[in-house]
Amino acid sequence: MNIAFIAHDRKKDEMVNFVIAYETAFEHHQLYSTGTTGTRIMEQTGLQIHRFMSGPLGGDQQIGALVAQNEMDLIIFLRDPLMAQPHEPDIIALLRLCDVQGIPVATNIATAELLVRALQRGDFAWRELVHKYKPGESQ
């Protein structure tokens, strides 16, 4: 499964702690992240993460491109709801793409935990079918 991590500045520590807690759940998946978030996670875990640019510099849109191609399976995006973000249009576009493609996205730690526990139980097997039979392709 392809999993992306994104965290606003004041949520980066929370993201790192979350990934540390569930490191074994993530170790057998393809992991992606925006720049600084990915660096911080890799410094604190043994996980390898493909890092895109920082969110405000286009990293959100790079992850969004994978979502648009239906190549992302789960996104954990810890947003800071109390701080205005200069790249808010990019954030809204990413969340809209997740809705269009039916990609599970957690924007807070409680939802992230529910999704990771579902991942551990194998509840995301339906995403493998999406990859096997992409819409518009002959079967």
TrEMBL record:
NCBIfam families with a match to the protein in the record: MGSA, PRK05234.1
Similarity comment: family membership: Belongs to the methylglyoxal synthase family.
Provenance organism: Paenibacillus roseus
Keywords recorded for this protein, A-Z: Lyase
Catalytic activity: dihydroxyacetone phosphate = methylglyoxal + phosphate
CC terms in the record's Gene Ontology section: cytosol
Database matches in HAMAP family: Methylglyoxal_synth (MF_00549)
EC number, UniProt record: 4.2.3.3
Keyword Lyase: yes
Gene that this sequence comes from: mgsA
Classification via SUPFAM superfamilies: Methylglyoxal synthase-like (SSF52335)
Signal peptide range in chain numbering: none
Protein name: Methylglyoxal synthase
InterPro entries in the record: Methylgl_synth (IPR004363), Methylglyoxal_synth_AS (IPR018148), MGS-like_dom (IPR011607), MGS-like_dom_sf (IPR036914)
Matching CDD domains: MGS
